Automatic annotation (TrEMBL):
Organism: Roseibium algicola
InterPro entries noted in UniProt: MlrC (IPR009197), MlrC_C (IPR010799), MlrC_N (IPR015995)
Keyword Cell membrane annotated: no
Comment on bound cofactor: Binds 1 zinc ion per subunit.
Keywords carried by this UniProt record: Hydrolase, Metal-binding, Metalloprotease, Protease
One Pfam short name: DUF1485
Protein name: Microcystinase C
Amino acid sequence: MKIAVGGIHTECSTYSPVQQTASDFTVTRGKDLLVQAGVDGGRFPDVTFCPLFHARSIPGGPVSADCYASFKSAFLAELEAEKPCDGVLLIMHGAMHVIGLSDAEGDWISAVRQLVGPQVPIAVSYDLHGNVTQTIVDQIDIFCAYRTAPHIDVTETHRRAAANLVDQLGGGPKRYVAWAPVPVLLPGERTSTEDEPTKSLYARLPVFDQRSGVTDANLMVGYVWADTARATAAAVVTGTDLDAIQQAASEIAAQYWSARQDFEFGVPTKPLELCLGDAATESSSPLILADSGDNPTGGGVGDRSDVLAAWLERGLTGGVFAGIADPVSVDKLWALPEGSSSRLTIGGALGSDCKVVSTEAVLLSKLGREQDHNREVLTRIAGNLVILTEHRRPFHQLEDFRRFAIEPSTARFLIVKSGYLSPELAPIANPARMALTDGAVNQDIEALTNQHRPVPSYPFQRVFDWKPVTSLSRRAPS
């Protein structure tokens, strides 16, 4: 068997002022791509996996039309060069928004289908925060999505998709896909699989897998910060029996709908001023404060200084702010020796409309290289440590801090641009707080501009009746 592997993966807030271009993406190829896909090392001995490329960016704003077109044409050219293929494994996200396109993944997957023809099965691996459409379902044979948020089963999900594909190509029964959109749109911070009711809903999915005729059951939360017509939660089920997959999709969708009023934030979540009040009186440490509205891993810009401004106005000290994207300040400090002082204006450097901080900063250390465009600086501002970065990025790993000789577990306060905390930071939080802050991924979703989302959708509209309606892929026999 010969299976082509690749795809494109990003999450795009339509409320972000920053448009993504090719420079925002990291492209993985060759053996590294097979490792990322979880199909390396002879795991599927009867298969030759042919890596094309996988383009991935930190979530952000919409992708430019030129950037998307360039990646798409390059991908199709590489896929054409590998033909004939017995199957295709696409590693996607599902929440990419491209200027001028209403369904970017639908466009990408449809182009792959047109190129390989109707007989070649296509398997896709998705983030559970992706959006699904009938166009996507009509092009594919196998659909598998993450079952954890925070995402700790990424490679496992790719392997589930690959295993379904390999089994079908090896003579196993043909797979089909059924789905049921659910008119609910909630942020990931209220649907973490670490917390109820999401925890139990996702724990049931493997039970559906054991049903006769079902091979992979999925619940999609969807992506709320894209004001698009395709934004929706959904149940998506792969299997070999049409009745079984439709029944499973209907049940999963109904369970999610029934729980719609039960989803809450998993950590104490308050307006920023109340979170700062907690910091002023908290004796245990580290208190980890999440600046949720500017979270880069959800599509936030990462350049807002609202929290820093409010923190300094209160006279709080001992905070580690990681980090704020500010290429202008980084460039200014880069020319100075460590230990120098400089007057900085921090905030909104990438286009966010936010309160700026004009302050004196002492340069403590520098990391990265100018030619690699990855410069970062550690500064001291009014008794706090503030990391400024050349490019927007999250600080979710312990090593992100230790590179600057900061031990996160012994800090008094860590202030990170995040929603729910990452698997590395959550265990050390003592305690954790999530601040309801402004930004491109504002948690006050009912206040978001809402021009294109389906109506009705909970919680934008709250009083309406709904029952699941399932649809099959057009690749299923009629």
